[in-house]
Design a protein that fits this description.
By secondary structure, the protein is an alpha/beta fold. It has 8 helices and 12 strands. The protein has a 7-stranded mixed sheet with strand order 2-11-10-3-4-9-7, sandwiched between helices. A 3-stranded antiparallel sheet has the order 8-1-12. Strands 5-6 form a two-stranded antiparallel ribbon. It is globular and about 40 Å long.
Length: about 200
């Protein structure tokens, strides 16, 4: 990323009260955390093999995953990053390589939650990716993007590819289908939050 102001914005302490749209839409309860340990698709350690198997558009969640896809010569249609990996700041060389996106979108999202701003931005960028697959956009998350895969699975077009990292194992490739979409929505609905409000911001009603 060639704009130092972005890295500074992600790293700076955020003591301000949440603005409209930045408050949590859903919050992950402790009892559900174990459900996210199992991968939602095959695990790859070779980025080139993953790119060869992935259908378009490709949506990447995570800094390291995005970096590996770019190094393999593939620009994700949507990338979601927060400047961290395993809760630590990513290496400067990796951050510098995450570049070349046509548009940038900044949102705040507290740890262990999905904010209205993140969910709506994901819906908008995924829709843009489906309509204009030759362009790319990056969502820069101040806070945490760990749960972003779920709204992506709900809103992405059928057949799209979601790629995210599996700690200590590699990259997971998930093809969006009706089963994955229903499972993701079920998990979101079982989190702490208002399901009617959740559906509205996901564009389901």
């Amino acid at each position: 990323m060639d704009d130092p102001s972005i890295a500074a914005w992600l790293a700076e302490a955020d003591g301000a009260a949440p603005a409209d749209g930045e408050s949590p839409l859903v919050r992950l309860p402790t009892a559900m955390r174990q459900e996210f340990k199992d991968p939602l698709g095959p695990i790859y350690t070779d980025p080139a093999s993953l790119v060869a198997d992935a259908a378009l558009p490709v949506i990447a969640v995570g800094d390291i995953v995005t970096y590996h896809l770019l190094q393999a010569g593939h620009q994700p249609a949507v990338a979601v990053v927060d400047g961290k990996t395993k809760r630590e700041t990513v290496d400067a060389s990796i951050w510098a390589a995450i570049d070349g996106f046509d548009s940038h979108h900044r949102v705040r999202n507290p740890q262990g939650t999905l904010s209205v701003a993140l969910v709506e931005t994901l819906g908008e960028t995924v829709e843009q990716a489906a309509a204009a697959p030759d362009t790319s956009r990056i969502v820069l998350v101040k806070g945490e993007e760990d749960l972003a895969a779920l709204p992506v699975l709900v809103t992405a077009p059928l057949g799209a590819s979601l790629v995210y990292g599996q700690p200590e194992e590699g990259m997971v490739l998930t093809t969006v289908d009706e089963r994955q979409r229903a499972d993701a929505l079920d998990r979101l609905e079982r989190m702490d939050g208002d399901n009617e409000r959740l559906h509205r911001h996901l564009g389901l009603r």
